[in-house]
Amino acid sequence: MNISLKEAARNLLEAEKIVIASHVNPDGDAIGSSLGLMYALQGMGKEVMVFIDDDIPAIFSVLPGYEVIRRPEKGVEKIRADLFVILDTSPDRIGISGDVVEAHVLNIDHHVTNKGEAEFSYVDSGRAATAEIVYELIREMGREFTGEIASCIYTGIATDTGFFRYSNTTPFTMRTAAELMEHGARPHIISEAMEQKSYAVVKGMAAAMQTIERFCNGRAAGLFMDRELTAGIENTEGFIDMVRVIEGVDVAVLLKCKEEKLCRVSMRSKGLDVAKIAAGFGGGGHVRAAGCTLEMDFADAKRAVMQAIEEAMGA
Amino acid sequence: MNISLKEAARNLLEAEKIVIASHVNPDGDAIGSSLGLMYALQGMGKEVMVFIDDDIPAIFSVLPGYEVIRRPEKGVEKIRADLFVILDTSPDRIGISGDVVEAHVLNIDHHVTNKGEAEFSYVDSGRAATAEIVYELIREMGREFTGEIASCIYTGIATDTGFFRYSNTTPFTMRTAAELMEHGARPHIISEAMEQKSYAVVKGMAAAMQTIERFCNGRAAGLFMDRELTAGIENTEGFIDMVRVIEGVDVAVLLKCKEEKLCRVSMRSKGLDVAKIAAGFGGGGHVRAAGCTLEMDFADAKRAVMQAIEEAMGA
Questions:
Q1: Beta strands of B4-70 (E only): which ranges?
Q2: Which of A100, B6, B25, B232 lies 20 to 30 Å from B204 when distance is taken between CA atoms?
Q3: Check: CATH 3.90.1640.10 for A5-195?
Q4: Which sign does the torsion angle of CA A175, A177, A181, A186 carry?
């Protein structure tokens, strides 16, 4: 059932024991929203727990509360709570976090794909990040922003907007960030932490960038990682950006060969509908960011993806 | 003579024919401030010219007015104007732009090193970019922000703050950007343009990144480009960031061997005073960003820089 921001705030105000969860493969918005809301509710004397069914990347240790996030375990007794708040995803992407809680469900999200099918749903796809909605909820509840709350929410907003560079960035985003900075969020500390890479990943990135190839007369380019290269790099976050920035490139591809007949493909575009290309391989996504998995070996997958992009471009 | 923002605005309002100039090796703030102020003054019916004594990098062609920036020529008749506005630098870094104009001088800058020695100076080192001061001047003059003005000023602010990530970013920065977006500045268009690199530079970056080496127990790391590597890459903008992001690295170094006995060194730090290290080689800069030139061949220069950093770190 879709409810208003005011009603969502009232649900939170009325609950005493609250469990918060967010999606697997957690990003800055999942973690920042969860911890920001946790601190705000704890400040009102409520009992709050945060669950994420995944490892939390070490870069987020810059955030207060990093160490209190729990990973749900199978077969334990369910926690009875007043409210189970699911942030930044519909309830189907929280792993087994839902299995450890018995409570009314409040789902808060900014993804346009969230159909609002939870018990209570507040979805605002006009917001750049769920953290922006958490900011609005805290204001609606009449609470102050502490330094802890501000740092967490700022991180959610900054990461989901690519540090205020993506097209989802709005004047509201900028003004919210301004206010959070006044309450203690420090952009350079957070951005430095978010950008950190291990020495091995930077060296792997250098090796991977050597494989960049242009096609479609330079309107597309790909970074093609064979099995050996893929196996040697734990984290390819940001690699596709090195392709995306090349002059004249509309479509950027990152192909990783994970197993003998299994290749993962990510695509970013500045115009062409890459969701359509991904769908042709059983994948999906958005017009400008999509992905798919090909059950082919490296050479075949590379050829198939390049061909599909060439056809879509009418080249 | 130092004057107030109000007086600077009055100087601009009273002038009919105005020449604007900014520094050589122009960046987004030099170009964005100059063009933003030009459009605002032209909107008031004034005659305005912009001079920069250098090439204007092609990435700035995304800005309106890119093509009207002139390069001063030697030996031409001086332009008589009412006001010569020097932006984002003290008057000593504008090449020969000053030689082509005869007018009262108004210097507007945000650099703390600007001592305010021009005929009229307005320097506010609390502002993250000169573009922020141009924004204030336009408001002070009671003018509206057109889409052209907003895009130019936004670019100055965004580039000088590393897209709102550096420690100079303030709540004022964020709120100014919000207002400029409402007047037509588009963050994703501008950021995509600013990040563009040629295919050759991206491939060169990959090759350069292969040379990254850690030292001082991982507290320092350097990207060491010998003569051959240096000669093959036209632009190393952003290369040092690939060193700076490595986990545990306080001091990042970029060394480029330009000629047989000439190496340029840039250093970035998160704590250690690299201006002091640079000064030891006759260079200079800020605590966290400094540079120097070594008249040594590649191997000697590399050894000397690594040793100086090791000594400064007490390793």
A1: 17-22, 47-51
A2: B25
A3: yes
A4: negative
d(CA B63, CA A208): 33
Give the distance, in angstroms, between the CA of residue B268 and the centroid of all CA atoms in the same chain. Answer: 16
Q: Which is nearest to B290 in space by CA: B281, B278, B308?
A: B278
- pLDDT tens-digit readout, A222-255: 999 999 999 999 889 889 999 999 999 999 999 9
Paired tokens of B106: 């108004």
Nearest Cα of chain A lies from the Cα of B214 at a distance, in angstroms, of 8
Domain ranges of chain A: 5-195, 201-313
CB contact under 8 A, B247 and A196: yes
The CATH code of the domain at B199-313 is: 3.10.310.30
Q: Are strands B289-294 and B262-269 parallel, antiparallel or unpaired?
A: antiparallel
Is the CB of A177 less than 8 angstroms away from the CB of B182? no
Contact between A309 and A251 under an 8 Å Cβ cutoff? The reply is yes
- Domain A201-313 belongs in CATH node 3.40.50.360: no
Interval A66-75 mean pLDDT: 96
- Residue A307 sits at the chain B interface (C-beta within 8 Å): no
Q: Is residue B6 exposed (0-12), middle (13-18) or buried (19+ Cβ within 10 Å)?
A: exposed
Is the CB of A218 less than 8 angstroms away from the CB of B199? yes
Chain segment A180-210, per-residue pLDDT in tens: 999 999 999 999 999 999 999 999 999 999 9
Sheet holding B251-259, edge to edge: B213-215, B220-225, B251-259, B262-269, B289-294, B284-285
Shortest CA distance to A184 belongs to which of A137, A147, A210, A135? A147
Q: Amino acid identity of A23?
A: H
Partner A contacted by B210 (CB < 8 A): yes
Chain A nearest-CA residue for B241: A195
Q: Residue B236 gets which letter from DSSP?
A: -
Interface contact B188-A166, CB threshold 8 A:
yes
Give the separation between CA B154 and CA B185, rounded to whole angstroms. 6
Residues A50, A40 contacting (CB under 8 angstroms): no
How do residues B87-113 score in pLDDT, each as one tens digit? Answer: 999 999 999 999 999 999 999 999 988
Q: Which two tokens stand for residue A298?
A: 């490296």
- pLDDT beyond 70 at B315: no
Q: How far, in Å, CA of A254 to CA of A242, rounded?
A: 10
Whole-complex ipTM:
0.91
Question: Which chain B residues have a beta carbon less than 8 Å from that of A170?
Answer: 181
Residue B186 to residue A167: CA distance in whole angstroms = 8
Model's pTM, two decimal places? 0.92
Strands (E), B13-164: 17-22, 47-51, 79-87, 101-109, 120-123
| CA atoms of A105 and A84, how far apart (whole Å) | 5
Distance CA B154, CA B176 (A): 8
